[in-house]
Design brief:
Layout (H helix, E strand, L loop, with lengths): L5 E6 L20 E2 L3 E2 L2 H9 L4 E5 L5 H7 L13 E5 L14 H6 L2 H7 L3 E6 L2 E3 L3 H10 L4 E7 L9 E5 L5 E6 L8 E10 H10 L8 H11 L4 E5 L4 E3 L3 H10 L27 E2 L4 E3 L2 E2 L4 E2 L2 E3 L2 E2 L4 E2 L4 E3 L2 E2 L4 E2 L4 E3 L1 E3 L4 E2 L4 E4 L17 E3 L4 E2 L4 E3 L2 E4 L11 E2 L4 E3 L6
Parallel strand pairs: 1-4, 1-6, 4-5, 8-12, 14-17, 15-18, 16-19, 17-20, 18-21, 19-22, 20-23, 21-24, 22-25, 23-26, 24-27, 25-28, 26-29, 27-30, 28-31, 30-32, 31-33
Antiparallel strand pairs: 2-3, 6-11, 7-13, 8-11, 9-10, 9-11
Protein name: Glucose-1-phosphate adenylyltransferase
Pathway: Glycan biosynthesis; glycogen biosynthesis
Enzyme class: transferase
């Protein structure tokens, strides 16, 4: 029988609705990050760097690009005969078939997969955080404390603690209480959604709670284990960790990569981040180009100015265009004479000559003020922006737009323009 000490289950089915048009056609873990990576590369790289060679990736929402990106796991050295990486979408069973309805329900539906490896421990991960972490150190902590469940927790400023699930631990690290987004937090240790379970404990909890609608780790499984007097411990993590679930945090995390001394370093030899890279030609920087403090992907052609940006592979920036404080994903074409300020532009967008993005007043978005904020212009993939238009701040655009969609050639700040038409 196969025996693995610890296997990882990576939850990558999320829609990421707070990323707005960026995730209209792609699962959040497959969204580009840092010019050449996708968000899921970080937990996958952490697994192989931590010596975990068996990873189940649970997909659900828009899985095509994620599946293609992961493939058989070659970039992460996860193409193994025994173990390796397995994509686990929901599937039809003889008695019933259902979508994954919560994080724990998704894991429950894959009990057979986990049982195959007869693991001692199961590591539960989320596919949408940017961080580097050695899970082996966390496992050592779990064993040393004879824990049933270990929860990775991160100190956050006390004034922000009410936004998180908070764990209260005694001096030994044993968890005595949980608070879900408490108005009066008793501690500043926020749960990171990273758990190590001893396999028998996880199995029993999943079986006992299998009929709970939308069964979730934070809301159901962890409180259940606590009630049953299981040994729950908090593993304190003090490194860089970013939930890139909002456009603001996603933009900030990308911008932090280009700091003079980046807080999160993609260039370390000993803890590499692996990805599935296309084979593309090198970048071309014209003699007219001016570039400072930017990451420029392979195959990019720069004829204009780029300041403080993360530019993906295969991007073209035309002569006389100035791009500032922006994230431009792969295969975007920016024409000549464009001005782009603080924008997030998704893959394969076409911006025609002399367009201006990020102009005007910083007024809230009328349709979704909690999503399209931070003064950003957000453009969904495969969109087309016509020549000479002006686009304000806190705006969102998706689809093939034409001059007529812009009254007087302007999309005012706070407006949203979503067109159904796709360009083939």
């Amino acid at each position: 029988m196969i025996k693995k000490e610890m296997i990882a289950m990576l939850l990558a089915g999320g829609q990421g609705s707070r990323l707005g048009v960026l995730t209209a056609k792609v699962a959040k873990p497959a969204v580009a990050f840092g010019g050449k990576y996708r968000i899921i590369d970080f937990p996958l790289s952490n697994c192989i760097n931590s010596g975990i060679d068996t990873v189940g990736v649970l997909t659900q929402y828009q899985p095509l690009r994620l599946n293609t990106h992961i493939g058989i796991g070659i970039p992460w050295d996860l193409d193994r005969n025994i173990g390796g990486v397995s994509i686990l979408p929901p599937y039809e069973k003889s008695s019933n078939s259902e979508w994954y309805t919560g994080t724990a329900n998704a894991i429950y539906q894959n009990l057979d997969y986990m049982s195959t490896f007869n693991p001692d421990y199961v590591l539960i991960l989320s596919g949408d955080h940017i961080y580097k972490m050695d899970y082996e150190v966390m496992l050592d902590y779990h064993k040393a404390h004879d824990a049933d469940v270990t929860i990775a927790a991160m100190p956050v400023p006390m004034e922000e603690a009410s936004r998180f699930g908070i764990v209260v631990a005694d001096s030994d690290g044993r968890i005595t209480e949980f608070q879900e987004k408490p108005p009066e937090p008793k501690s500043n240790l926020a749960s990171m959604g990273i758990y190590i379970f001893s396999w028998p404990v996880l199995k029993k909890a999943l079986m006992d709670l299998k009929d709970v609608p939308g069964c979730d780790f934070g809301k159901h499984i962890i409180p259940y284990c606590h009630e049953k007097d299981k040994r729950l411990f908090a593993y304190e993590y003090n490194g860089y960790w970013k939930d890139v679930g909002t456009l603001g945090s996603y933009w900030e995390a990308n911008m932090e990569l280009i700091d003079i001394i980046p807080e999160f370093n993609l260039y370390e030899e000993f803890w590499k981040i692996y990805t599935n890279s296309d084979i593309i030609p090198p970048q071309y920087i014209a003699d007219t180009a001016i570039i400072d403090r930017s990451i420029i992907g392979d195959g990019a052609e720069i004829y204009g100015e780029v300041h403080n940006c993360v530019i993906g592979s295969g991007v073209t920036i035309g002569p006389g265009s100035v791009v500032r404080d922006s994230i431009i994903m792969k295969d975007v074409e920016i024409g000549a004479g464009c001005i782009i300020d603080k924008a997030i532009i998704a893959e394969s967008v076409q911006i025609s000559d002399n367009a201006t993005l990020g102009t005007g007043a910083d007024v809230p978005n009328k349709l979704k003020p909690n999503i399209y904020s931070f003064g950003l212009v957000t453009i969904g993939e495969n969109s087309v922006i016509p020549e000479g238009v002006q686009i304000g701040k806190n705006t969102a655009i998706s689809g093939v737009t034409v001059k007529e969609d812009y009254p007087g050639g302007v999309l005012e700040s706070g407006e949203t323009l979503i067109k159904a038409g796709e360009r083939i």
